[in-house]
Amino acid sequence: MAVQELLLGVLEDLYAEDFKKFQWFLPSESDGRILKSHLENKSRIETVSKVLCICTEESEAVDITVKILKKIGNNNAAEKLKKAYAGDVNDKPFKLTFHSK
Q: Which of 29, 74, 88, 98 is the most exposed, fewest CB within 10 Å of its CB?
């Protein structure tokens, strides 16, 4: 599964309030490469696009996303994303399902 699909799957499963928190943390976790004003009224798809645009490697986008998920208390989704990105899915058909809190 492509990284943009993994990231979108995570963000689509966040409740609206958690998504707002994710966007709030994104500017600081991206070392200022994404401004808060660039995230105003942005969809989950647009947010994933912003993250991927500022990252030089896919792994950096995953790392930023995992770090923010942990900050907003969504450790389960963070771990699932890390495992999915690493390919640790036990060679079974895998459907990403993330649940907030």
A: 88
